[in-house]
């Protein structure tokens, strides 16, 4: 489905990114395997992971080039895109998968922990997408696939930085879809459920949390790749601005914020009438303080 296309997959030295890079190559794409080779918290660097995945693709008869530039820096992100164009002649798809974690309860979160996560997830997706957008506009085609998370779409404990970045990423994707649809450029999101290095950092403090971790372990990263490869292909030409979730063998189309219920008062509102009339009328439709695990309670199938 991707014969002749060139794809960048950020953070593809392992886990979900690696499986997406391999799937893209199996479908005929030339792949720029981007990974700085850092730790889960974004510290340190190594050329090893990107090189290993690129070598794996080549050994299977595919085309690939490793890249170790950081998505968090705009100039570095431009180099990722330029490498794709210079090595393979064009760029057709970017998968924004690179990520780090710096989990902490909100009242204990430092400014550095906030900045580091937003720089990689939100700024990183913007930086690489913006660099690719120049080429997409010129060639009148392109696809962006962003890895969001139910931590942002629904909520999670101890991840204010990660959740804010991931929900911001869905808004970024929608804005790109609106702004660039006239150039035949598409932008979609996937919220993946899969056991990976990032998920392995989930704290396990009781039997409930242990059960959740064991459930996630059943969901392997390769389950995410088929949807990502499809979204990069011409077969997805009419799929734009959507948010999907993949959970083992299940694919979900996620809702996006829309009005649920309204209340009108012809003479306008005062704080008192809001308390006495508006909120009691609307309260039945309030969204509960769910976490991702509260919404996705059933066993993966």
TrEMBL record:
Q: Which family does it belong to?
A: Belongs to the short-chain dehydrogenases/reductases (SDR) family.
- Pfam families, per this entry? adh_short (PF00106)
Superkingdom to which the source organism belongs: Bacteria
InterPro entries recorded:
KR_dom, NAD(P)-bd_dom_sf, Peroxisomal_Beta-Oxidation, Sc_DH/Rdtase_CS, SDR_fam
Can you give the residue ranges of the Ketoreductase domain?
A: 5-198
Please report the name of this protein according to its UniProt entry. Answer: SDR family oxidoreductase
Organism, as annotated? Herbaspirillum chlorophenolicum
């Amino acid at each position: 489905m991707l014969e002749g296309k060139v794809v960048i997959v950020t953070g593809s030295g392992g886990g979900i990114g690696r499986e997406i890079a391999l799937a893209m190559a199996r479908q005929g794409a030339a792949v720029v395997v981007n990974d700085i080779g850092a730790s889960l918290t974004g510290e340190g660097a190594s050329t090893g992971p990107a090189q290993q995945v690129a070598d794996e693709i080549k050994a299977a008869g595919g085309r690939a080039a490793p890249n170790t530039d950081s998505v968090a820096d705009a100039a570095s992100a431009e180099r990722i895109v330029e490498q794709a164009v210079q090595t393979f002649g064009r760029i057709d798809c970017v998968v924004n998968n690179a990520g780090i974690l710096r989990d902490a309860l909100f009242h204990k979160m430092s400014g550095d922990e906030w900045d580091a996560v937003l720089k990689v997830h939100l700024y990183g997706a913007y930086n690489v997408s913006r660099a690719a957008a120049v080429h997409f506009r010129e060639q009148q085609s392109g696809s962006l696939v962003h890895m969001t998370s139910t931590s942002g779409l629904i909520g999670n404990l101890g991840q204010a930085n990660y959740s804010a970045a991931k929900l911001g990423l869905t808004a970024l994707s929608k804005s790109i879809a609106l702004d660039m649809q006239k150039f035949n450029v598409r932008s979609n999101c996937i919220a993946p459920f899969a056991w990976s290095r990032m998920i392995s950092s989930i704290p396990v403090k009781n039997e409930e949390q242990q059960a959740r971790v064991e459930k996630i372990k059943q969901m392997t990263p390769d389950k995410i790749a088929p949807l990502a490869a499809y979204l990069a292909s011409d077969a997805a030409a009419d799929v734009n601005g959507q948010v999907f979730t993949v959970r083992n063998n299940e694919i979900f189309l996620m809702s996006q914020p829309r009005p649920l219920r309204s209340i009108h008062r012809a003479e306008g509102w005062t704080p008192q009438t809001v308390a006495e009339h508006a909120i009691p009328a609307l309260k039945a439709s309030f969204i509960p303080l769910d976490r991702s695990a509260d919404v996705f309670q059933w066993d993966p199938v």
